[in-house]
Amino acid sequence: MTYASRIPADAGYLSALGRAFYNFTYLVWIVVSTIARFSPRGCAAVPQGQTARTIARALLRAIDEASPPLAPAVRRDLLQVHERHLQVIRVRNKLLHAHPFTAEDGSQRLSAGCRPWSTEAVDDAAQHFERLRELKTGSMTGSGCIEMSGASFCTWRQRMGTLVSGLTKTR
User: Fold this and answer.
1) Coil, strand, or helix at residue 86?
2) Which residue from 2, 50, 110, 139 could staple onto 117, CB 3.0 to 4.6 Å apart?
3) pLDDT mean across residues, the chain
4) Distance CA 146, CA 1 (A)
């Protein structure tokens, strides 16, 4: 049996919302895997059942506690990821804490205060989350870059492990 909601909403709008939240969750998973990779405590350093901001603080701790210490360029790039992650958390929170309303055309939308989230605005948020996921940090490889986009978690993590083990020795 297929679920049919009694709350009217445009399928395209709901799809855009789903994409935005999925993109944000994907980004958080990259941050979580980075915490586990760099923290001496591994997966135990990842906050369980906590907010995205708490996870962001754990990333900062993992960067600070990495052992052996990270090469300066790697540290700088990861700090940039941390700052951009904090920015997208604010955008995600505005979307997540928005309330439903009926627009002038009768469509159901979300609004943050007096600022409605149009489909285009939701798509912009999804792309904003995705851009951080695609952040390229060229200093991590010396000759190329780590592309988080299109890489599976295992592949990305394996590449990070190889690169970091070589880079931390060149402090």
Assistant:
1) helix
2) 110
3) 80
4) 44
